[in-house]
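CORE FACILITY INTAKE
Project code: CF-77B
Contact: R.S. (postdoc)
Sample description: multi-component assembly, two entities in total
Requested service: structural model of the whole complex
Turnaround: standard
Below are the sequence entries exactly as provided by the requester. Do not edit them.
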Amino acid sequence: MNYPVWELYYAGGGLLIALIAVVHVYVAHFAVGGGLFLVLTEMKGLREKSPAVLEYTKKHSKFFLLVTMVFSAVTGVGIWFIISLVSPAATSILIHTFVFGFATEWVFFTLEIVAIFIYFYTFNKIDDRAHLIIGWIYAISALISLVLINGIIAFMLTPGDFFETRNFWDGFFNPSFWSSMCFRITIALVLAGIFGFITAVFIKDADFRENMVRYCAKWLIFPFIFMVLFAWWYFASLSDASKAMILGRSPELIPATKIFVWVLPILFISGLLMAIRMPGKVKKPMAFVILLIGLVYMGSFEWIREAGRRPYLIPGYMYSNSIIVGDEAKINKMGLLGTAKWVKHKKINDDNILEAGQEIFKLQCIACHSVGGPLNDILPVTEKFTVFGMDSQLNGQGKINDYMPRFMGTRQERMALARYIVEKLHKKIDTTETRAESSVKELSVDIPPFDQKTDDYILLAWSSVGIYCMPGSDSWLKLLPPGNGISTQLIRRGETPEIVTEGVDITYDKTLNPFPLFTIKAWDKDKGKVLAQTSIAAPVSVEMGCKNCHGGKSRAGEENIKDTERFLDETIKNILAVHDKMSKTDLLETAQKEEMVSCQSCHPDSIPGAKGNSDLLNLSTAIHGFHANYLTDREVDACNACHPSSSNGSTLCLRGIHNEIGLDCTSCHGNLEDHALSLLVAEEKAGKTGAKLLIKHLVPTKVNSISQIKAREPWLNEPDCLNCHVDFEQPESDETFNMWTKSIDELYRSRTDDAGIMCQACHGRTHAIYPATGIYGNKRDNIQPLQYQGNPYPIGSNKNCKVCHTIDMEDEMHHPNTLTMFRNVQ
Amino acid sequence: MDPSLPILALVPAPDSIPVHFGWLNFFFILTFVFHLLFMNAMLGCGIIALVRSLRGTQPDLFIAKEISLKLPYTIAFTVNMGVAPLLFIQVLYGSFIYTSSVLMAWYWLLIIGILIIAYYSAYLFDFKFDVLGSLTRNLSIAVCVVLLLVVAFLFTSNITLMLMPEKWVEYFSNTKGTILNFSEPTLIPRYLHFVCASIAIGGLSLAIAGKVKINSGIGKDSKNFEAMISSGMRWFFYATLVQVIIGLWFAAALPRDIILWFMGGNKFATPLFGLGLTCAVALLFFGFKKQIWLSTTAVVITVIVMVLIRDIVRLAYLKPYFALSDLKVEPQYSPMILFIVTLIIGIGFIIYMLKLAAKQKEEV
């Protein structure tokens, strides 16, 4: 934001910091423990009056000098260099806050240098006491250096209340200061033993060598026990957020934590092994292997410490990408490019959108992600995305998975970044397609025969759901139990018509296509005679948008299904893998090993009556609540991203009169944020812990605040038709979010008129209200009105009472406003 | 970049400082003087050792070996004394030096690797001086010196680039961190000014080392040490002579408005410049007379004067963009008091240790 960004692609993702820091920290801890090792070993030599021990100490001090003075000192400056190149803003905060802490540490660093040079060059040349004093001055200076730098490093992980008080000492004596200090001191002692092996194994005299190797092993083994205890204390002193990151919330940390836990006993056992007498030929390579194990141990610890801060560099103050937490709102309003200093494109237009995307990538992503490099490579984790999917991922990033910062910037900037990643980094052309007009063919419908004069019965039928959605991958996942039920009412015509419920059989024949037609027949049970017949479409759609974000190839070549709509196992596998990663499940493994995964086996769902695990969010809430975080501010496009409701798709599930007059999903259900919140609020009230995280970043659009959202249960509390059609009259409003039916009896699909005729029998099923239109032809969803009254309007409308009554009627006995002419004529 | 955007808009906003900038500047200048003295001695002695080692006669090798013994810890102290001013410059001029460092990031980072190799070469030259064949010996010191010269050049490039935000726009055509400030006319004279000063001070420190040996009675072979003194003083004198010319070249290459500061345009700059010229004359005089201690005193004064002049030049360069008084102070003095107390105690310990070290066992 404030500084130019060094464009590191392959070497990005903190690779350079890691390389320099890990080796430096390793040797620097040795420089602390090794100082005590030298002076205590010299004392041992003097006490035992052993010239051999003293000679060993002298040799070790030369090794020590070469390793610490050169490598440790210069790489220490190296860390400074590299952090100021990769994260200058954070380095600046650190330096400005702790300048005199660093300066004081520098005094001890100077003392260390003077002391160690004098110690090395005056070995055997000055009297023993004076030499030991110099040794102690070194050891204590080194220890104080560690204590000082520890305060500053611990601050980066647990700043405590520094950002409230802005007091140096609050930052320095932060919550993990003491535990981290004790842990690091014990590491330093362990490393003194490990580095001691390196010189001890080269001692020529075998007995003395064994003696000294054992002595070094004690340095490793005894502090080790304390080190483990202090590691635990250190962990306990971290913030809950950091603990969660370390325990697996951040996928980046899982390998590091595993390595740390595994290497710990290995290191201890190698220390014990070294104490066993073995020929020099064996011990020499062993010493170097242990040195390497120690490096891996130290590396994994530093990795955990670094990444335990995610999504921050300085918890609560600065994000990993150097954006200051308090600037987020300003950036979202004014744009990232508008607020950053070192950008070429302050404004985005069609010509510069990809270049601007690259600049945004630099500012927000490059601090942690490499491109094709070994650390946090951006390519594999974004490979599956289309531009739409990438944009949605950025939309939800950091909201549920909070190990990354949220995307900061305007909608346009988010799109620029999404396009840069998909079109430039992956060199993919955007596959967010629109339906080719020719891909959907109108299907012919034979309207079943009906003769108003002679037929005694009419058969009304509808499907139980407006459309049944299924993933195209049958063997991996089921969202709902398969099937679209068919309901019917058979009416015996006459001046007083009658609903026939006994003595008849209803059967069906079908033909197969996306809007399959079912021929329904009512049979006289006794006579085996067909009383009435009709047909309806009971649509099943595989047009689910999972592939938009979850990757996978499309299944091509099926008639009336667009290539990109039907997804394959790959998409499902990705969905299961994401679920596994985020919710710590093993669905993918289960699906691969055993059987199809059913969402309802865990998530309760009232429609099939699945009880699931009552601690978990119900299925609809989980799915809508999760995805709403990734699909904000997109109105009906958010619905169309998953459901088969897009006017460009191959289904167009909202195909009734409501679609025709310009309503869309959001008119009744609210935008996705509202829709999800209404479900989440109910689950939160029910005490489900999962709801809170999903609610956290959602902002309602149809009402002013979450407190105004009316909680609802999926499938049971739905928009009521009569909210708008008050007293069955022409509506004055076309929005009805937040007004729900109170029980299952009030639902459109369960209600009847005053004469016991189901609403759906005359008006058609949900989402396909008569007169319906559709991309497979307008007749397909209007068969019965066409069959019985020759127009597509609701049964009996336009005063067509004769359909059932055989005569004209004068009373509105079904519901008010029935004896008027239909308003929205086609 | 949008051409209408002023350069000023690129300069990062600085963070606040805990004490008045005067304190930080004082510590910066103080520690930088020490860094320069060590650095000059290190680089100069390295160059002299290389020349002597290449010549390879017995007296040459005597001097080269004497240097080899001291080179490693001179490097250690140069690095150590460099840490403090690098710390303070980040506090005072962080917005500038972080930016210029990012622009030359790969080179800036390269310094670390180069320094480690140079350092180990110096140790090789020291510990194996008598064991190595002349080729390897020459190679070890040559590698060390060449690498140190590269480090010096990279520092010069960064320190000039940080002063010139108008050159930062090159970032918009090169974001790879490989920008060096070659287009800057003062780059070469500034660099040579440092290298030449190093040769002079390297020569002087050689003479001082010889003198100390003779005075302490350790130098049994006083002829060799005498030769060391006169050789050192020759290097010192001639290098200073060349330095005067380079210094004038450097001054002439400065932008005109900055030169004018030193020609009566600024009440601090003009007298300091006069003092600097006087120092140069004194250095030449004492050098010619081979008066070691007077030369040393004059060198220390000169380095202080030059550091102050440098400070003024820096402020003059940055004047369109920044003044130290712009820095917001959020006062908190206790950590500085801790530092000052520690520094005083630390100096006490160093003196104590040096005294302990001086009391060598009688038999040695």
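Facility notes:
- Chain B touches chain A through 72 residues (CB under 8 Å).
- Chain B has two domains: 13-167, 182-319.
Invoice: internal transfer
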